[in-house]
């Protein structure tokens, strides 16, 4: 782990001294190399794609294209994560083309009882949180707890623009803090990090999602924002596309909420299949 931390620290330094276009080219090369060398990770991505496109006969060529692009996109996302330690709030804001970001976040906060922003491991979720904080949104996020040195390094990057982070083991406190202070709490809900989740239908298979999220949203009547941020596939003026849907206060059952969440996740992923950056064997067979 210490070697990995040192490599990431070197990456952070290296990104600061080279132009972004050159960094992207290097990232693409590293992504392609990892695609060919990391056979197990490649198999996980292929398995994801087989579930995503189970209702149509995706060709081997198309599947391989998505697999390669997934590795490249992950490398590009890491470039931007490393850059969070040195670029200005203005540069972060100008790099994103927003869709409903300000108006829907403002509507959610107008309820005055906190907002849960539900997103997934699609595109660049860390950049999204930093972007919202840079805009002045009172932003918090639940994050995965890793080895202490790595966690400290990531926390420094994530909180640089004003976002506050809580480890997933402190989720209860994070929700109370969000409600009391009328903040936005970002939750990544497509993976069962704590390994105690519930199993749901997901495309042609089954996956586990976090336990308890639906219960607290419904019980506390918390406004929910479904959102995501992806690399702009058109590579235009804006590097990212940021989407936040209108807030909802859900009145149904927990099962109904989970089905709604999964339906939205499936739509997002299907729209950007090579930006679902999940390199783990998490399908329930």
From TrEMBL:
Keywords, sorted A to Z: Acyltransferase, Cell inner membrane, Cell membrane, Membrane, Transferase
InterPro entries in alphabetical order: LipA_acyltrans (IPR004960)
One Pfam family this sequence matches: Lip_A_acyltrans
Gene Ontology BP terms: glycolipid biosynthetic process
GO MF assignments: acyltransferase activity
Cellular component aspect of the GO annotation: plasma membrane
Subcellular location as annotated: Cell inner membrane
Keyword set includes Lipid metabolism: no
Keyword Acyltransferase: yes
Protein name: Lipid A biosynthesis acyltransferase
Organism taxonomic ancestry: Bacteria, Bacteria division TA06
